[in-house]
Amino acid sequence: MNAIAISLNGSILNRAVLVLNSNYAPLHVCTTRRAICLYYLDKAEILESYEEAAHSPSTTLSLPSVVKLNKIVHYNSMSVILNRRNIVQRDHHTCQYCGKSSGPVTVDHIIPKERGGLDSWENLTTACPSCNLIKGNRTPGEAGMQVKRQPVRPNRIHYFQQFVRHQQIGWRPYLFMEPLQ
After folding, report:
1. Taking a C-beta distance cutoff of 8 angstroms, is the pair 115, 138 a contact?
2. Residue 37's domain spans which residues?
3. d(CA 107, CA 177)
4. CA Rg value for the chain
5. Same domain assignment for residues 133 and 102
6. What is the pTM of this model?
7. Which stretches within the chain are classed as H helix?
8. CA distance linking residue 138 with residue 26, whole number of Å
9. Less packed terminus of the chain by CB within 10 Å, N or C?
């Protein structure tokens, strides 16, 4: 088996790849670089590919879009890790107080921590810096503001579905967004 020498633009190798468990359950999203390594180590098979390819002097490989692991990975959790990046993705990079979707966003505690507010999916939301400053250490009601969309805990399927863009159309059947062909 030839090792593939990758000399492509880094952005192509950083594309999102859906990783499926051996039972086809969505497991993870990784980069094309990692997916190629899994393929060449015989740890995964490529199910869907992007139009672009990686080239070496002796081999050409279509960039993977969906890979399936050859062995089952025991992972029972359907929960999504609570972190800033996942909160911002859940809220679509949009301030949940004014609806502004351009510019930076912060993560805001709806019920402030000093008043017993927890670090939880249901108490954290995104806010633009100006709304966060106006709200301060108050509840939205006290600040005369309203949360546009109540925050909820996402499950893994909804988490993966948000990655699907035009280039990831091949992911849709594996994420229950359309039937398998």
Report:
1. no
2. 10-77+156-175
3. 29
4. 20
5. yes
6. 0.63
7. 10-13, 32-40, 84-90, 129-135, 156-161
8. 39
9. C
